[in-house]
Amino acid sequence: MHGLINRSIQCFLRDTYGPDAWTKIAVAADLGFDSFEALLTYEAAQTEAVLDAACKHLSKPRDMLLEDLGTYLVSHPNVQSLRRLLRFGGVTFEEFLHSLDELHDRARLAVPGLNMPLLELRDHGATAFTLIVTHEHPGFGHVMVGILRAMADDYGALALLDFQGRKDGVETIAIELLESSFAEGRHFELGERASDPVDAVAG
Amino acid sequence: MTPAPDVRLPKAALARLMPMHLIVSPTGHIRHTGPTLAKLIGDAGLSGARFLEVFELRRPRNVTCVEQLRAVAGTTLNLRMRKPPGTPLKGLAVNLPGGQGMLINLSFGIAAVDAVATFHLTSADFPATDLTVEMLYLVEAKQAVMDESHHLNLRLQSARNAAEEQAFTDTLTGLKNRRAMDDILQHYTACGESFGLMQVDLDYFKDVNDTLGHAAGDHVLQQVARILVEETRASDTIVRAGGDEFVLVFHRLTDPDRLGAIADRVLKRLETPIMFGQDPCRISASIGITVSDDYDPPTADQMLIDADMALYASKKAGRAQHTFVNRSDAAEQDKAASQSPPQA
User: Domain of B208?
Assistant: First the structure.
């Protein structure tokens, strides 16, 4: 698994539960080091070990942990850059949803070797959508639920999200857009620079 | 197949296709601007200012009137907005049929990153066919990855420094370094191994550096290292302790005659000029020697201090010689020191 993904998990655990919790989880996962490097690649088993150790340490089901990770990725001040990249997708939440189809290729263009899940949005009328998440490792669907929830908030949209399960390597999320401008979204400008370049992508 | 018709577009359609276009009248005045360009030039578009008053044509050069502008239609235009911050633009002009003036389409090109910030543009300001937003996305992603890369390099650099610090070898000469010396002296004193300690300080080395440069200096240090290794046994430890300071540790060798003979052989060889290309480098050395048998118990720090004092005695006496530590004097000093009241 790419270092960016591993480091995202590490930063999520560190920023949410504290450096001590991360240290304990890293030891329990038997990593042999205390920090992932964002630009290196790691064995998938190491990512699994960290997630297992985190769930055990925090007494939290994996689905919830992954969903929280997704929310963290677009809402925590330490990881502004990812939110900005996602906001490039569109001016409205609906446009953003449609831009998810391109996310896999965009990510690959920016970071070759970053194996992001394939995303496909299907419309069922004006306000109902299904997001199809395809990746050889299960769990990205739950991360996407967290990301979508936080992005809806970012756009000021009101949406219902429902993880509908995994089958044959494909995870499905049902999205119902109740109101596209429910609240005032967070400010976003294309041209503003990330305020804190330190730890920009993954903390 | 019927031939495609000549297209006539309503202004609104033109605005959607090319939001950074403008129409310039035959007299050179701006008659209409697309919505994104309107954000850039503001009132100038509404008041019908002259195109060349708002934009400076950088290339092709020497275009100062509308006739000349018409003549460069179809070529790449490099423009700059006259008002600060002088945003650069790329443009393409076509002459409208029937002498109705010109249609000019503009784009930011590589300046898009700054321009988008300067004029608070959003993705709605660019048509879907325009790659500006994709470019901004890539710039943003690249910046994030570069930052990570920068941090990784910093971490690697400090890890490298730490590794070098922990290493036992002097990279220039291949001799042991001070850290290795501390390690081995600690080991010998702890195990009660007897040993001789020789401090060697080069003389006139600075002159070599100053007159022939650091490459010559480095070469001399390497040759000195070779001589020291050749004149000692494999069981001895040769240390480059500092710039031109060397420490030799002789395992289980404390006989003053033999140590003195080694010192003299080393001095003799160091007095022979070392050739750096065509240039002879003349150096010498001063040596101070002490042996662990004279101490009870021997400590590395005291022995190094004593050997250093003996070395300076050699220097004072005219260099190119060795001096043994006189422990009977030193012992009395030790005694005197131990009898004096403890210092705060």
Answer: 178-339
Q: Could you tell me if B196 and B95 lie in one domain?
A: no
Q: Tens of pLDDT along B242-273?
A: 889 999 999 999 999 999 999 999 999 999 99
Using the structure block, give the residue that is written with the tokens 């038997």. A30
Q: B190 and B113, same structural domain?
A: no
- Residue B155 CA to its chain's centroid (Å): 14
**Interatomic CA distance for residues A43 and A6, integer angstroms:** 10
Residues B183 and B265 in one domain: yes
Which residues have CB under 8 Å from B251's CB, separation 6+?
Answer: B188, B193, B195, B235, B236, B237
B161 vs B167: CA distance, rounded Å: 10
Question: ipTM above 0.85?
Answer: no
pLDDT digits (tens, 9 = 90+) for A1-58: 899 899 999 999 999 999 999 999 999 999 989 899 888 899 999 999 999 999 999 9
Give which of A190, A192, A195 to mutate to test B binding, by max B Cβ within 10 Å.
A190
Domain annotation covers residue B311: yes
What are the residue ranges spanned by the domains of chain A?
3-60, 92-179
Q: Mind telling me how many Å the CA of A197 is from chain B's nearest CA?
A: 7
Give the phi and the psi of residue B315 in degrees, each rounded to 5: -60, -45
**Does B114 touch chain A if contact means CB atoms closer than 8 Å?**
yes
Q: Structurally, how many domains does chain B consist of? A: 2
Contacts of A194 in chain B (CB under 8 A): 140, 143-144
CATH of domain A92-179: 3.90.1520.10
Write the CB contacts of A148 (distance below 8 Å, at least 6 apart in sequence).
A70, A97, A131, A159, A161, A173, A175
In a domain, B152, yes or no: no
Say what the pTM is. 0.62
Which residues in chain A have Cβ-Cβ distances shorter than 8 Å to B151? 38, 198-199
Residues 133-162 of B with CB under 8 A from A: 133-134, 136-138, 140-145, 147-149, 151-152, 155
Would you call B145 and A111 a contact, using CB atoms and an 8 Å cutoff? Answer: yes
- Cβ–Cβ of A106/B137 closer than 8 Å? yes
What is the distance of C-alpha B324 from the center of its chain? 45
The CATH number covering residue B248 comes to 3.30.70.270
- Please list, residue by residue across B157-185, b when 16 or more beta carbons sit within 10 angstroms of its beta carbon and e when fewer do: eeeeeeeeeeeeebeebebbbeebbbebb
Q: Are residues B182 and B104 in the same domain?
A: no
Domain boundary among B64, B93, B127: B127
